[in-house]
Design goal:
With 467 residues, the chain is of the alpha/beta class. The chain is built from 13 helices and 19 strands. A hairpin with a 5-residue loop joins strand 16 and strand 17. Helix 8 runs parallel beside helix 9 and helix 12 runs parallel beside helix 13.
């Protein structure tokens, strides 16, 4: 294991260019970072495919739209490869896992196709492409979930520079088999990483200057259940809070099935764990929830919310909603709208149902036209926009501790950071820098973000360059 704790190679000319295009969830972003680490001896990250000798498209198949974007991107890159035949074109992630050899039929210029479980083996697969030609590895790896099996550096190399926030995968896969979801078929069954391995990664990130980590999993609060330890997730949060240098801890995505008193108490007791929880409900009608195979009723979900807020009154919530599940009626959709009024999410990710091949829901009758579902979606999103704006206005004239992540996207002369409750705040500050913790007074509430005035420094960020 100690071999992972070494400096990344310097940016020498002998290293070829690596371009990674990432679609989808935070787990894909994490996998992309890890791939750059596994390849770091031979490749450096570059910002455009035109500068790369190895191009990797990391894919998402959770909905139909992102999958179409993946093929459009691969076709565009295939044209680039025609005039640059030395370039290796690879695709990985959930679409690769789902499509397998069909990827080669649809994208003849493709050199390498591999699934999420093969990410740690990317260096070996690239070498095999160079020696033998086209390769595919979409096997599910038997055994546990490990990322320290190879002699690789854990680097903080990105095309933007060293980050102050980072993802750490602690669990992958899903055993829930929701009827609409492809994840169990593309990511496999639930597997948890050994706790000591996770803590070593968090420690290494902290030593590299990372201040905030987000723990990742398809069902992150199911962490450790495959070990037979129902308190493993709470224990991990406690031990991660003890890592020197880490100021904040977040985690996504949680499943309502694993919300209990121990979980709620742990969130309330640990100051470094941010008071923010992403807890998808998906629908507000019990019949639809049963058809989705979500494993809970609306009342049970609401009881979880009541318990969580009893322990943490200021807990910020976000969620997911699927509109127009096969067989859903307008009256059942209205139950979902009523549910978000009662829950009052601070933010919501909502989508029209998208059939995924191989799932049970894809075989169900779906009589409601897509145009009508889109109208429902607009109603839901308009209602959520009002709720979000009302909650944002409750932040006015409050003082918030903000971790500066970088320049504002709208105005590079200003800074952007997040509150512990995950609110984005834009503000001017002449003497601040990325990574600083500052106190900001909120002076304006926009529909999705906040604007503030910097009142002063809480903690200055000192970038760490030596290991």
């Amino acid at each position: 294991m100690n071999s992972i704790l070494k400096n990344p190679p310097d940016d020498s000319p002998r290293r070829s260019g690596l371009y990674i295009r990432t679609y989808g969830c935070q787990m894909n972003l994490y996998d992309s970072r890890r791939m750059s680490e596994f390849l770091a001896d031979d490749y450096r990250r570059v910002p455009t495919p035109e500068e790369a000798e190895l191009i990797v498209v990391n894919t998402c198949s959770v909905r139909e739209g992102p999958q179409h974007k993946v093929y459009a991107e691969l076709n565009r890159l295939s044209e680039h490869k025609k005039s640059n035949p030395h370039v290796i074109l690879a695709v990985c992630g959930c679409v690769a896992q789902q499509e397998k050899d069909r990827m080669f039929q649809k994208v003849p210029a493709l050199d390498l196709c591999f699934g999420p479980d093969a990410v740690p083996h990317i260096r070996e697969l690239v070498e095999r492409v160079k020696q033998e030609g086209r390769q595919r590895d979409t096997r599910f790896v038997k055994g546990g979930f490990h990322l320290e099996d190879q002699d690789v550096p854990l680097a903080l190399e990105t095309v933007e520079g060293s980050p102050v926030t980072e993802f750490v995968a602690i669990q992958k896969g899903c055993d829930k088999f929701c009827s609409y979801c492809i994840v169990p078929y593309t990511r496999g069954r639930e597997k948890s990483r050994p706790m000591e391995e996770i803590l070593r990664e968090i420690q290494w990130l902290a030593e590299g200057g990372v201040l905030e980590v987000t723990l990742l999993g398809q069902n992150v609060n199911a962490y450790g259940l495959d070990f037979g330890d129902e308190h493993a997730f709470s224990n991990l949060l406690r031990r991660a809070s003890e890592v020197p240098g880490i100021e904040r801890i977040r985690f996504v995505t949680s499943h309502p099935a694993h919300v209990n008193e121990d979980f709620a108490r742990t969130l309330a007791e640990l100051p470094k764990v941010c008071p923010y929880l992403h807890l998808p409900i998906q629908a507000g009608a019990d019949r639809v929830l049963e058809a989705m195979n979500r494993g809970y009723t609306r009342a049970q979900y609401m009881n979880h919310i009541e318990m969580l807020r009893r322990w943490s009154p200021n807990l910020a919530l976000s969620g997911d909603i699927i509109v127009g599940f096969p067989g859903e009626t307008y009256e059942e959709f209205r139950e979902t709208v009523d549910a978000i009024e009662e829950i009052r999410y601070e933010s919501l990710f909502s989508f029209v149902y998208s059939a995924r091949p191989g799932t049970k829901a894809a075989k169900l009758d779906d009589p409601v036209p897509r145009e009508e579902k889109l109208e429902w979606l607009h109603v839901l999103q308009d209602r959520q926009k009002r709720i979000t704006h009302e909650i944002n206005e409750s932040y006015l004239d409050t003082k918030q501790e903000v971790l500066i992540e970088g320049c504002s996207k709208k105005d590079t002369a200003e800074w952007m950071g997040r509150t512990p409750s995950n609110k984005i705040v834009n503000f001017p500050a002449e003497n601040a820098k990325g990574g600083d913790l500052v106190t900001v007074n909120i002076v304006q509430a926009m529909p999705n973000t906040l604007r503030g005035e910097c009142l002063g420094l809480v903690k200055s960020y000192s970038p760490k360059t030596d290991r």
